[in-house]
Amino acid sequence: MKSIQGRLGLGLIAVLVLVSLVLLQASLWLFESALRRTLADNLREETEGLLVAIVRGPDGVQLDPDRLSPRYQRPFSGHYFRIDLPGRTWRSRSLWDASPQWPSSPGLADELIEGPQDQRLLAYRAEYQRGGQRVLIQVAQDYSPILQSFDRVRLTGLVLVGVSILLLVLLQRYVVRLALRPLEQARQQIAQLQEGHRRQLDTDAPTELQPLVDEINHLLGETEETLKRSRHALGNLGHALKTPLAVLNSLTLRDELTEHPSLRTALREQLTQMEQRVARELGRARLAGEALPGTFFDCETELPALFDTLAMIHARGVSLDWQAPAACRLPWDREDMLELLGNLLDNACKWAKTRVRLTIDRTDEGYRLCIDDDGPGIAPSRRDEVLARGTRLDERRDGHGLGLGIVRDIIAAWQGDWALEDSPLGGLRVDIHLPQRVARTPERTR
Amino acid sequence: MPKRRSIVRLTLSLALAATPAIARDLDQDEALALREEGLILSLEQLLGGVRDRHPGARLLEAELEEEDDVLIYEIELLTADGVARELELDARTGALIKDEVDD
């Protein structure tokens, strides 16, 4: 899952690392090149000092030891020279028996040369004319202490870069969290919306989110309104059709039709079908899929009332009980849930000998509803038939024949599934699984 | 007779005086030449062995001496704990002849 926080953090770290490394290396380069220029000046001055030290003595040209720096005396001191005259060569005593690869081009050598005792030498070559003679003077200085100190500086710099990046990332996390808090609030509110704990999003969102929040609230309101209207319209249509259908039904009983019994039977058959169809569509129309905000089914208020009603209808000593998690709210439409439970419990009560039980459990995906009775049950071979068509198997007990059909439609609308099983109470168990997050406004087709 | 004795004395004193004169310091150019001929080890090689004896020691001074046709390196070191030591090594083989605290 990619979060804005994560992306910002990653981008920031990448940019910071790149910029700091480039800055660190660039500043080291600049500093080192400035240092080398200074050292080159010093070395050039050394060659000039050595040129002056060449004096004409009693037995020809010689090197005046008083004009030589003592550091050219101690072996492997890190400061070396070599002076070449036609037919003569002086090497500093500090070189002792070492013979480094002196550079071949004048000025500061581009590359460091290998010196004794793992020294890395910065070398300088100068050519002069003195007393009509060509004098080649080469000097070198141990550069390895400077390389080591550069390594130390680089390491310190890297540690500083690391620490500052860590600090900046922590700071950035804090700032981003602060800035994204409204988004997080909106996310939580939408979750609450799905749970059925709220009907609208808070309207005090920041300016950037305001249009989104307004639009969501508007859509929520509109959806609720539309649904209400269409349910209302369907209800009206259904009721409006009921009376004409009843009138037509009674018309079929008129004497004029007694002479045409087949016509009468056909009419009645069609009218009954129409009535059933109207009743069924009325039921279906009320299935709004997932509950609209705020219209959740609150077990603790709805179930006692439902069970009281059932106990009144089936006053024949059947013991009814239910079990649900504390403060359980089922995030589906209250009326549909009542219809679903009412139908199934009613069926169970009709068949039960002594007991009917409703159990509601929270599962990982949503909720599980179990309706158990201790009646005769349904033979396993016939259960699929009931599930598939929602038909009634009993023709003896009274009922309108739509109960299980509506149950099936409701469960399908909620994208749940159901099964008929043997109940631990001895009769039938209806086992319903309802996933919590279902797509909004599922289109129901036949 | 007295004259003859004096001659003997003179020769003796000359001989005695000449003994220290045999030890001679060689300069860097001679050291380079000897090293290139393979007659002596390089100073760097010798110092490698010395550094195993005294880790972290710094070279203060090195001299190559010829004593009775034997080439000897006299090396002064400053050890890691700041003590100056004087070492003598055979320049041909690198064998340690002397290793003592400098006086």
Give a quick rundown of the structure.
With 446 residues, chain A is of the alpha+beta class. Chain A is built from eight helices and 15 strands.
Structure report:
The complex is a heterodimer of chains A (446) and B (103). Chain A is an alpha+beta fold and 446 residues long. Chain A folds into three domains: 4-148; 203-285; 292-446, Heat Shock Protein 90 (2-Layer Sandwich). Helix content of chain A is 50%, strand content 19%. In chain A, the strands form four sheets. In chain A, strands 3, 4, 5, 6, 7 and 8 form a six-stranded antiparallel beta sheet that branches. In chain A, a hairpin with a 5-residue loop joins strand 6 (113-114) and strand 7. In chain A, helix 3 (210-251) packs antiparallel against helix 4. Chain A is rod-shaped. Chain B has a single domain (22-101), classed as Nuclear Transport Factor 2, Chain: A (Roll), CATH 3.10.450. Chain B is 37% helix and 34% strand. Chain B has a five-stranded antiparallel beta sheet with strand order 1-2-3-4-5. In chain B, strand 4 (84-90) and strand 5 form a beta hairpin. The termini of chain B are far apart. Chains A and B meet through loops of A and helix 2, helix 3 and strand 2 of B.
